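Hello K.,

You asked for the raw outputs rather than the summary table, so here they are, unedited. I folded two proteins back to back in the same session to keep the settings identical. This is the first:
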Amino acid sequence: MYTTLIQDIRYAVRQLRKMPGFMVTAVLTLALGIGANTAIFTLVHSILLKNLPVVDPSALVRVGNYEDCCILNEVASSRDDSYSIFSYEVYKYLRDHTPEFEQLAAMQGGGADLTARRASGDTASHSSYGEFVSGNYFETFEVMPFAGRSLTPTDDADGAAPVAMLSYQAWQRDYAGDPSVIGSSFVINTHPVTIVGIAPQGFYGDRMTQNPTDLYLPLSQEPTLGFYAVRNNPNLGWLFLIGRVKPGIKSGVAQAALQQKLSVLLQQSLGQLKDFQTAHGRQLLAKAHVVLTPGGIGIARMQHRTASSLYLLMGLAGLVLLIACANIANLMLVRGLARRGEISIRMALGAAPARVVRQMLTESVVLACLGGMAGLLLAYAGTKLLLGLMFSNATVMPVDAAPSLPVLGFAFAVSVVTGLIFGVAPAWVGSKQQPANAMRGANRSTPDGSSVLQRSLVILQAALSVVLLIGAGLLGKSLNKLQHQNLGLEADNRVIVDMNPQKAGYKPGQLQGLYQQIEDKFHAMPGVEHVGLTLYTPLNGNNWNWYVFIQGQRPPDAGQENAASFDRASPDYFKAIGQQVIRGRSFTAADTATSPGVAVVNEAFVKKFFKPGEDPIGQHFGANEIKNSGDFEIVGVVEDTKYQNARELPDPMYFAPMLQQSHSRIADDLDASLYASQFVLQVKAMTPSLEEQVHKTLASIDPNLSVDHYQTFEQQIGENFSGERMIARLTLLFGVLALVLAAVGLYGVTAYTVQRRTQEIGIRMALGSSRGTVVGMVLRGAMLQTAIGLVIGIPVALFCVRSIKFVQSQLYEVAGSDAGVIATAVCTLAVAACIAGIIPARRAASIDPVKALRTE
């Protein structure tokens, strides 16, 4: 058997070498199909299927089933009464009362924006991404440091010396792997911290994100190095929990019991809070529970964000591979025509049909493996392209484009299966040859099923192609509508600059002078028209949200939603982003920290909190508690602007002046919202030197105040559509590829049909048929196959759009049965089919009847 297989492989290689044109065409076609599937599987494997690089990831369990972020009031931090983010007090209570865990670790739900530099020397500061973690964090994951030591529980004790652990990638990127970093003193957010170790290489923390953690710091340092001082606030949830269970707790029954116990402990801990001691609070407390989920994949933020996109792309790539298989099957059938004599002779000499089938399948698999090897090269390039589209703003690429062993195995398996798929039909047709055919001319042989099979494959290609074309058209039209909708702002000639005065050491009392300098210095820059400071800008991924109480109105009922988004704005801010004031006034220089509290609200706020026709100007409201209902006087109304989600209606929002203190604070000693994190510049014209001027101007105000991020307003808005843009572009790419493959397949079948009907066409022309009649006859056959493919493909496409929820979620103001898109797809495929059919049709019309009658 082994010897026979080797013989078959050698024979297959010799046969392919005899027809280099066929081999190159087939290999390139397969490389496109296999490469596309392998590229996407690389991402599926790296993002969706891999566990954390830790010891025994199956023993890790996460307490929670959502990824709520980042700081939430414990009363409102549940979703469906299920808790996934916890206060430090709840974490300690659960940790101390669950011996079922070998370790239970806590980590910050969001991240910490830090500035770090070495204390000695003139090393420049680095903007770093940090994460506060419990002292047993690395012990829970059972990972060893690359160098130095890990954080320990003693580092997390109150009063412990401030220490931190540096990630391997940050160590290499910012400090070139300098071993002297370990044990040296750093200045982090103006505070001295000692680096005790380097995290292991390839460890990206407890979750996979576009910007992995640079610095791991003990929870005990959050009140000093953080900005919100939430560690000691029992009312605020801000920690995710992951534990390593003991060996006897891995079973489903044991974990169900542990889940029930944790839910009871959660209720006991939350029950001590004042908010849960009201009638409404007790109702919420009775429903509070936790759901345990696998922790070996970490807190799968990237998985949840990309899973649907990757599975959709995997399906689209699979359709392209099917079309490629149909195309190669057609090529193999045409190639088999030239070998009919050879096969008939072999069978006349005693070769069994099964032996012929095995030989032809071996050729198909060898061809597919060659396509798979070429596909790996395309897969590597395709993976890098996909990574660039998916993680365009990543500081460290969290996924490696190089193929791993599972990816290589996938490519090999796809190649073998592909070879069997497109090789079965030609092998079956070849095995049906009659030995007597060896004595006949190829074109005079008795009819077989190859022509019907070829046409069926072309119909399949046409059907799949129109599915992809309709999908590409719908997603493209949706993306166009999404990008060109009225967002209620103006993005032209505007740039967004991120900064963080708090990391530069500014106290609240120093902010007035800083903001005045920023406004004065940037207004003095040539070409700058408006300078607007704010807490956050539209569509930058941030949101502050508070309960609102209108003075004079009855307090909302328990459980009634009365929240609104909150932002701060300088007097020039609304002009800077192009948001129009439609009633009242904007802020002025007279709205200072000591003046009466004022607010500007948007139209959605007015609609939500006031009756139709009621004048909001002069009304008072407050936030957080009913007793604060007189904090703000509404002095203006601005038009609605989409701040959080470009697909949804604008949220109710209110704006306060930059420095007016409110009672909506998340910490008793500091209103973190006083710190502007962004400012907007509207300029007369964008110039290449603008970014450099911004850096220099901000540095001239304070060298410790750095530009954390610089981008145009258009870029910031465009980032909200990066996922939709990637899906639309790749679907269009797959659609075009499918269209080309289908056209090539139709051309091949039509040319083959013309060749088989040479004598018939010659007779027709000898009897008086015109060239136009012959062209029409051939084209009718080609267009009929395309029409049947359309009849099958259009309903399939409409069914997929309506039944696949992710596809529906991607469509914005576009119906799944958009007539224009369907008509365009149909016309595109029809034109391609016409072009593919006209060439062999014209060739048929030019046949010399005399020569045709002599054709064997």
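The second followed immediately with the same parameters:
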Amino acid sequence: MESLVSRHFVPCGAASLRSENDIKMKIAVAQISCSLGDSEANRSKVRDFSRRAKEASAELIVFPEMTDTGYSMPVIQKHANHWKTGFVVSLKEIANELSMAIVSGVSERDGSLIYNSQVLVDAKGNIVAKYRKTHLYAVSPVQEQTCFAPGDTFASSALGDLRFGFSICYDLRFPEMFRKLVSEQNVGAFLISSAWPFPRDEHFRVLAKARAIENQSYVIASNRVGKDDDLWFCGSSAIIDPRGVVIAAASADREELIHADLSQELVRSVRRRVQSLAHRRRDLY
């Protein structure tokens, strides 16, 4: 992998939709490769990227799917952990040490079951929310249902002025999930931890923008690069604003850190200008 790159873009005209009293929150996205079954190496990378994000004044950093184990069903079955030990404990320590919230895709062993999960650790090192992937990818050569149990609950959590909704990779193809998070949990930003592969890289980019535009919400997508088993991951991590404007973007093949400012006032402004969420025909659908 090439050395870490940090990118931050500000779209023209963004300030025109924001008030002088607007409170912003800086978030970072880590686009990384993972070492299969090597939680120590993956933990070290999380610490390094989190430190770099803190140096950029980020309050939250988002990591990809299965950051602890890598994305291989046999490896996950062998190395998945309960959260009272192992990788999640390290996430709590890093978050507390840096006074920064961390979201990461991570395995979750619960009794005899394993879940493909996402955890939110706050700046004090406390687990404040989690989500278990509800839509399992069951297309050859990946058969997630052979490893994971599906989750049955959508989740969101407030940080600062924004409420963040959780999702993992394949969930991106199910717009009903994102609409439900907006309409029932008042979400203004979606956090996506992903291990999305080539050759469907264009799907990843288009679907992420569509979820932002149709829900007038931020999309913060952290995707993998590198290779696990026979899968090459397509990177292209991005932060997209409620208008569908990409305000920070990563390459398709390098480890990178991207960051951007999020604004609850921008979410409100976009929704006031075009009230499409209020114009839905609930009597028809």
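DSSP finds six helices and 17 strands in the chain.

Happy to rerun anything if the numbers look odd on your end.

Regards,
P.
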